[in-house]
Specification:
Radius of gyration: 23 Å
CATH architecture of the largest domain: 3-Layer(aba) Sandwich
CATH superfamily of the largest domain: NAD(P)-binding Rossmann-like Domain
Structural class: alpha/beta
Number of strands: 14
CATH class of the largest domain: Alpha Beta
Oligomer: single chain
Largest sheet: 7 strands, mixed
Bound molecules: nicotinamide-adenine-dinucleotide, (2S)-2-hydroxybutanedioic acid, manganese (II) ion
Strand order of the largest sheet: 8-7-6-9-10-11-14
Number of helices: 23
Number of domains: 2
Shape: globular
Helix content: 40-55%
Length: about 550
Amino acid sequence: MQPQTVLNDPLLNKGTAFTSKERQTLGLTGLLPPRVQTLQEQVTQAYAQLQTKATPLAKHQFLMQLFNRNRVLFYQLFQQHLTEILPLMYTPTIGDVVEQYSQQFIETSDAVYLSIDEPETMAQTLKNAAAGREIKMVVATDGEGVLGIGDWGTNAVAISVGKLMVYTAAAGIDPRHVLPIVLDVGTDNQQLLADPNYLGNQHRRVRGAAYYNFIDQFVQTVERVFPHVFLHWEDFGRKNAAAILNHYQDKITTFNDDIQGTGIVVLAGILGALSISGAKLTQQRYLCFGAGTAGTGVAKRVFQEMQQQGLSAEQARQQFYLVDKQGLLFDDMPDLTPEQKPFARQRQEFSQTDLTDLAAIVKAVKPTILVGTSGQPKTFTKEIVQSMCQYTERPIIFAMSNPTKLSEAIAADLIEWSAGNALVATGVPQAPVTYKGVTYEIGQANNALVYPGLGLGVITARAKRLSDEMISRAAHSLGGIVDVAQPGAAVLPPVAKVMSYQPKIAAAVVKCALTQGLAQQKIDDVAMAVAANQWQPIYN
Ligand SMILES: NC(=O)c1ccc[n+]([C@@H]2O[C@H](COP(=O)([O-])OP(=O)(O)OC[C@H]3O[C@@H](n4cnc5c(N)ncnc54)[C@H](O)[C@@H]3O)[C@@H](O)[C@H]2O)c1
Ligand SMILES: O=C(O)C[C@H](O)C(=O)O
Ligand SMILES: [Mn+2]
């Protein structure tokens, strides 16, 4: 191998950690500073450099440079400083990274850009990108629904890269086995269409049959080029996200993170909240604010859980109320999505005629659980929180929207307005809140808490399908980590321990796959099999 190849391959490069013997063998003598460092010395030095960067975006750029040069060092640093680095490489900073993509562009970070204008190149592109590696996991986005910030076209490649980083940092998914992909089908973002520096296809989004044909070609090609791949869909627009999942979930091993990952983390958070309050799930009234991809995905997961806990489908359905742009959703509305329809209510259930404003809806419905997936900032007001406190002792309030500027609420407000009674979680990281002498830990209800372990389980089992039961098992596996007797306990386990509970999630998924006959891998010892699939960021 050419010496330059080793130094330029982030999966092989050790930088200053190449020993003098390795330098001799690989022809690197004199191509690096003379001092040989240990990995830990490199980590310490890189961490100190990181501290000199002034803004989250500058820190992100520095960390991307490390990622692009030396992946072992990058992930070792990431894992050692996980709570600090996660928000820099993922939510919320990733939102700014997407918006600034063209302005900041230097290099591609081993991502793949599949253009709807050149469909014939797809198979060769995937082979080129893999360069002989076995690809076990792909994250693909078409960038139409990035977090809550909307359509960012090809810029959304940063989301695929970021999601995969979290897979590796949190669950040890081997970076040699992953591929981040953007499906560039155009953009309807006027700012990008007018921007001379925009790097994507500068035309409007292709829709309809041509779009679905492209998606289908992608699925067929990925499955052919990478047998047994786990295909993770991220941040598609509302219509396409559900349509794609519904079409492929019984055909291939696939997962929509916004629908299913979010369903897992919210259900786990609700189960955590109920174990604090002692209330029963089957007695909760559930209000979804923002009934789009995530909102309906989560509602469906909680709905299924209520049935597992003994309610009939009809009884369970009575506990759900969905609110979208139109207000409370009624079955006579002409523009309901297929995912909203099953939960739409009948007008005659209510004496009120105007149920468009969230505060009025809360007063009428009296929800005990309020989950925001609307991308509408500050919509969970004092009035709403205080209404909920009038009829329920411990209201469950999750403000899921990302990034921070779009969150439905600030945790500190929810705690104060409810006099410490609300059981709170937020999609973005929020600091603990001290109120009247109690410190409330704020669980981060972000799918990042769960999808890495889920993917690790799927890969370990070489699961044929990702079933509903596997998803349900993943949600339940998060119970018992937090000491709920502790005053101010969070409803979800902390991000600081995220690495420690991913194997637990993975094991639950593997066991379920084995039971359901969906595992294509023979496994005797589940914990050992999971551990064997975890890559460690250390030099060979
Ligand atoms: N915390 C997490 O893990 C997580 C996961 C997925 C999505 N999210 C967040 O949820 C938000 C929505 O994401 P999505 O993928 O579901 O997007 P989406 O576009 O599919 O859904 C958003 C929904 O909100 C509705 N909406 C818009 N304005 C509204 C208003 N004023 N009142 C009521 N409803 C309104 C839209 O019509 C749409 O149905 C984003 O901010 C995203 O970051 C968080
Ligand atoms: O990316 C995140 O932080 C969570 C979620 O997938 C989202 O779209 O907001
Ligand atoms: Mn997402």
